[in-house]
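Quick illustration, no need to memorize.
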Amino acid sequence: MIDPALERRIRRAYADFARGDLDAAMAGFAPEAELVNPEYSMEADSSGRDALRESFEAMHAQFEYESLDVVHIEATPRGVLAEVRARATGRGSGVPIDETFTHVLDIRDGRIVAYRWFSTRAEGRAAAGLG
């Protein structure tokens, strides 16, 4: 069972990100937080808040976000698993995107220390230790 206050914070952070308010979206990240991409990602991992912010800025440079909706959220042994539906349009291509990704957020002392994303629920659940 996920703590209701933590769930509200996470849902709000996704909404903040979709609006482009990266300061608010990143408020729950620890200074040493890292973005860990799956092996099939074309992007490199990022470590530290500044590098993480650059990665998030790059996402906004590539896409205009309509919404990021948390469609499922649950507690994991180290934090939270969130399935997120992203609706956006490619800035250069104009191609619409409507995809669901699984994010694994490792949390320590109330702050996100690792943000990992996966294309499928099964990958995310395995990475989160949920089987």
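The mean pLDDT is 94.
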